[in-house]
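hey
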C-alpha cells in the first residue's frame, strides 16, 4: 500500500548548486507500514522523522521546509489522535516480541500486559513503564532502562495502538459500541480502563472442551479471544432475543 512520490532537489558539487534532480520516495499510508527506525524517529522529532522517511543522505538535507510539510501532508494517518496498529513494529530489540496482534502471547501474558499498562497509566512512574516494556519483550527491566526515552515512547505507542486494534476487533469482550462514530473514542478509554478479569473469564471457559483454567490461560491469546468473543456475542444475542423491548427497538429500526 506504499505510495510513491517525487521530491525535487538541486544537486550540488563542492557546495556549488547545479541542476534539479528528482528522488522517488515510498511513503507509508498507515501506522503498520512504518519501519522501526521511522516509528522511533516519529516519537523523537518531526525533522528526524522526515529524514527517516527520505532515507537518503544526499537528499534529506537539500529539501526546504515547504517540501517537508508536503511530505507530512502526504501521510494523513499521522494526524490520527488514536493510532491503531495490527503489527508489532519494534522488533530489533530482543529475540522475543509480542508478535502481530499479540500472536506470540498466551492469554496469561496478554492479561499481565494489560494489568502492567493499567498500573503505569495510573502512576506514570518510570518503574511501572519499564516493567511493562520488559514484559512485552520478556527481558530484564534493567535492559529497558538503558533505552532512550523516545524508543520507550515508540514501544508504548505500538502497544497502545495494537491493544486498541484488539478492543475494536472484540467488541463483546471489551463491550465496545457498534456506532462507528464513537468506537475509536470508546476503544481508547478501554485501553486505559481497568482490564477484564481474565482469571474469572478463564474459569468460565474451563471445562471438557478447553481443559483446566491453567490450560485456558496458556492458550494463545488470539485463539482464546476469538472463543471468548464468540461466546459473549451469542450470550448477548440470546439476552436481546429474550428482551421484548430490544425486539421492539430492533423492529422500529428496520421500519425506519
Amino acid at each position: 500500500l506504499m505510495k510513491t512520490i517525487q521530491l525535487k532537489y538541486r544537486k550540488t558539487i563542492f557546495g556549488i548548486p547545479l541542476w534539479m534532480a528528482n528522488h522517488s520516495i515510498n511513503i507509508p499510508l498507515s501506522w503498520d507500514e512504518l519501519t522501526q527506525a521511522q516509528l522511533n524517529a516519529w516519537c523523537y522529532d518531526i525533522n528526524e522523522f522526515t529524514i527517516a522517511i527520505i532515507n537518503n543522505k544526499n537528499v534529506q538535507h537539500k529539501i526546504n521546509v515547504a517540501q517537508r510539510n508536503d511530505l507530512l501532508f502526504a501521510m494523513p494517518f499521522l494526524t490520527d489522535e488514536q493510532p491503531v496498529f495490527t503489527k508489532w513494529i519494534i522488533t530489533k530489540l530482543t529475540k522475543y516480541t509480542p508478535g502481530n496482534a499479540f500472536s506470540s502471547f498466551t492469554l496469561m501474558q496478554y492479561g499481565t500486559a494489560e494489568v502492567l499498562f493499567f498500573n503505569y497509566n495510573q502512576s506514570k512512574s518510570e518503574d511501572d513503564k519499564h516493567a511493562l516494556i520488559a514484559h512485552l519483550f520478556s527481558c530484564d527491566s534493567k535492559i529497558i532502562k538503558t533505552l532512550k526515552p523516545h524508543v520507550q515512547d515508540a514501544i508504548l505507542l505500538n502497544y497502545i495502538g495494537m491493544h486498541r486494534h484488539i478492543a475494536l476487533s472484540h467488541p463483546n469482550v471489551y463491550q465496545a459500541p457498534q456506532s462507528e462514530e464513537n468506537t475509536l473514542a470508546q476503544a481508547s478509554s478501554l485501553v486505559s480502563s481497568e482490564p477484564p478479569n481474565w482469571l474469572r473469564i478463564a474459569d468460565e471457559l474451563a471445562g471438557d472442551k478447553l481443559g483446566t483454567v491453567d490450560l485456558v490461560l496458556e492458550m494463545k491469546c488470539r485463539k482464546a479471544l476469538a472463543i471468548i468473543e464468540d461466546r459473549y456475542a451469542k450470550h448477548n444475542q440470546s439476552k436481546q432475543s429474550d428482551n421484548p423491548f430490544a425486539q421492539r427497538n430492533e423492529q422500529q429500526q428496520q421500519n425506519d
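The mean pLDDT is 82. The longest strand covers residues 16-27.
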